[in-house]
Design a protein that fits this description.
The complex is a heterodimer of chains A (226) and B (229).
Chain A (H helix, E strand, L loop, with lengths): L1 H20 L1 H21 L3 H29 L6 H7 L4 H31 L7 H25 L6 H28 L8 H27 L2
Chain B lengths: L1 H26 L13 H28 L2 H32 L8 H22 L3 H28 L10 H4 L6 H45 L1
Helix pairs in contact in B: 1-7, 2-3, 2-5, 2-7, 3-4, 3-5, 3-7, 4-5
The chains are: A mainly alpha (226), B mainly alpha (229).
């Protein structure tokens, strides 16, 4: 219970800092709009093609824009030795990591909301037909990305070439989650009834979130303590 | 002692491999449906198995490092990942050659193939990350954590042919199917080749671990010299 309370405290702090500076949100939002724009110029897909590739396009945008958020997540604690102060505080490493993941989660969801609205306008797609299911897929997919983003943002925070190392490490690990999220989003955007095999993708999303969250909690001390 | 062991293992692997090659090309007949190309599977599957076993052994040493903080465990984990990565690449290349002959294509985005490629990328990232960290204990701590996360994908590679309907053939080895899918003569050569590749991998790990220990020693001397200066 204490861990959750502390995690919420960290998330609130990060979100307050972000709302004041808007450095990650502006960068991630602008990046996702540019990618969507470039994509519509590069391929000029017809409505049928959009249904086929829409899920993939959205999740690639979320994953790439997410890296911008994750890079800042722990890096913003480096000036004035804030990270050392946080680690010296009574907060547990697990609550610090969860708090960072929660802040990443909220920021990514905000960016995703902007992206899907723009996606709907640019590509003329009605994404609101299955808004409940789509929200669930976005929430599950985004939690997995956010948790791994927090873990590897922490792992790479003191490295040379941090901005380069994070994508090299994180994207291969995210592939199972991205494939599952892409398949489910594609299905919902195309307004197709789900087949029994499609539930496998939902299971993969849930298992991925549970396994990686559990691993992150177990290894929080290792990841964060210098 | 370790050098002699490495040489002994390499010699045993070479002898066994020579005998296996003789069996494959001079004794065993061509497979009824695939022709001569099936022989590449004597290298393809054992390389994959040695790679996957290696990742799990590296996982064990990574956990041991985190509990004991002994850098030898980290050196062993890194050496094993490096050697396993080589065998995973051998697995992908030989599989691709087999696919070109049998399927008519070099590559398909099948779950087994994709997860195996992802596995290679994850552990390649592991090695790249190690080179980006100068401080040995930080390097050991972070790469142990990454190895533990990466091994989740190894489980996906292993189980993907059971979980998904793939273009990649399903399990054929007796310990996964309960028997009856592979001729005993083929199975014998297959397992002998697995042993040969495992011996070769162990010899390579011993050599690589020694290099890691030497580089750690050089690194600490350099630090000492830097501090003294």
């Amino acid at each position: 219970m204490k861990t959750v309370k502390h995690a919420l405290l960290i998330a609130r702090k990060d979100l307050a800092v972000e709302l004041r500076t808007k450095e990650s949100l502006n960068a991630a939002g602008a990046f996702s709009i540019v990618i969507l724009l470039l994509f519509s110029f590069a391929f000029d897909p017809d409505p049928e093609q959009v249904k086929e590739i829409g899920g993939g396009l959205l999740w690639l945008v979320f994953a790439f824009a997410g890296a911008l958020v994750f890079n800042r997540s722990f890096a913003r604690e480096l000036p004035n030795d804030c990270l050392d102060t946080l680690l010296a505080s009574p907060l547990s490493p697990a609550s610090l990591l969860t708090g960072k993941a929660l802040a990443n989660f909220v920021m990514l969801l905000a960016m995703e909301l902007v992206s899907i609205v723009i996606f709907g306008i640019f590509f003329n797609v009605n994404w609101t037909r299955h808004i409940g299911e789509l929200s669930l897929v976005f929430a599950l997919g985004t939690w997995g990305i956010s948790m791994l983003g927090a873990v590897f943002g922490a792992l790479t925070v003191n490295l040379r070439l941090r901005e380069l190392m994070l994508p090299i490490i994180i994207y291969p690990l995210l592939i199972p989650l991205l494939i599952a999220a892409i398949e489910l989003t594609k299905l919902l955007l195309a307004n197709q009834p789900p087949s029994p095999s499609d539930f496998l993708w939902a299971k993969i999303l849930i298992v991925f979130d549970v396994v990686f969250t559990a691993l992150a909690m177990m290894l929080a001390d290792t990841i964060l303590v210098n | 002692m370790r050098d002699k062991l490495a040489i002994g293992l390499a010699a045993a692997a070479a002898g066994l491999l020579a005998n296996n090659l003789y069996q494959m090309f001079m004794v065993l007949p061509d497979e009824a449906l695939q022709g001569a190309i099936y022989r590449i599977l004597f290298f393809h599957a054992p390389a994959a198995m040695v790679g996957m076993i290696g990742y799990f052994v590296a996982l064990t040493f990574s956990v041991l490092y985190l509990t004991s903080k002994n850098l030898i465990h980290d050196s062993l984990a890194a050496s094993i990942v490096e050697v396993s990565l080589v065998f995973s690449v051998v697995n992908l290349v030989t599989g691709s050659i087999w696919a070109r002959i049998i399927w008519g294509i070099w590559w398909t985005w099948d779950y087994r193939l994709t997860s195996a490629l992802v596995c290679v990328l994850i552990f390649f990232g592991y090695l790249v990350m190690r080179r980006a960290i100068d401080e040995p204990t930080q390097r050991a701590r972070l790469s142990s954590a990454l190895c533990i996360f990466g091994c989740v994908d190894v489980v996906i590679v292993w189980k993907s042919i059971e979980w998904f309907r793939n273009q990649h053939p399903g399990p054929v080895l007796d310990f996964r199917t309960g028997g009856g899918k592979m001729d005993p003569a083929y199975a014998h050569v297959f397992w002998m080749n697995f042993v040969a590749i495992l011996l070769m991998a162990t010899a390579l790990v011993l050599v690589r671990t020694r290099q890691e220990a030497t580089s750690r020693e050089i690194d600490s001397l350099r630090r000492l010299a830097h501090t003294a200066a």
